[in-house]
Amino acid sequence: MWSHNHWQHTVYGHHTSSQRLARYAEIFNTVEGNTTFYATPSLQQAQIWRNAVNDNFRFTFKLPKYITHELMLQDANIAVQQFFSAMAPLIDVTGIWKIQLPASFSPQHLPILAQFLTQVPQGLNYGVEVRHQAFFAKGDAERDLNRLLIDYQCNRIIMDTRPVFAAPPTTEAVIDAHQKKPKVPVHAIATAQHPVVRFIGHPQAEANVHFFQNWLKQLPLWIAQGKQPYLFIHTPDNQDAPQLAVDLYRLLQQQLMHTTAPLNDINLLAQHQDATAQMGFDL
Length: 283
Description:
Blueprint: H1 8-12, H2 20-27, E1 30-33, H3 43-52, E2 58-62, H4 65-70, H5 77-86, E3 94-100, H6 110-119, E4 126-129, H7 140-151, E5 155-160, H8 162-165, H9 172-180, E6 196-200, H10 208-224, E7 230-234, H11 241-256, E8 267-268
Parallel strand pairs: 1-2, 2-3, 3-4, 4-5, 5-6, 6-7, 7-8
């Protein structure tokens, strides 16, 4: 999440590990909380996280894998209630609740997803990440998925893994990323007000500029339409993710300067202190 030992000298300075979130929130404006995918925090822990950030900070939390992968969204009412009860202190500062589905969640399961979206707390922003290949084939399955998400005003999470798969698997971090990240086409569609892009970067920083060119065009278009996209910048081991986010954001800032879209209407994970808009990186 927001805690990474490698960033001690670049992000946290003299701050202790228990102060990292508070320090992070002083510099950045949003982060992906991946920890909830593996375990739901206690109400006490959720309150500690809430107390560490300001009112303008935005988390994005994954729903537990018990709900998304083990139950496959079925018979999950009690688990959903327990999760959101534990997360109650963080409701007002969570921008997107992520529903990451396994590759085994196929087109035949779409009615289950539709039913599930009626059972989660309403009035919140949700994002769905699918990995079944049929949802990327531009056929009936993908059209049905997109229509469902539009109908329920749920954001489709877009994975851009082109950069990391362009890297040769010569390091442990890249090999691990190749094994765990989905190799799927990039379909830039906004099904709701907060399109979510997860950009998995190449370990060589300069190689990412080529892959980022289309986002330099698409993100300003969404902003001009009144949408507020979330862009998460990863690297295979995340050690250099903050710097990559800064570098890519500078390119985006230059592009936005030539549009009518206000710069403060985009959430990129990891805000650069000298930038006039918010940006950041994913952990």
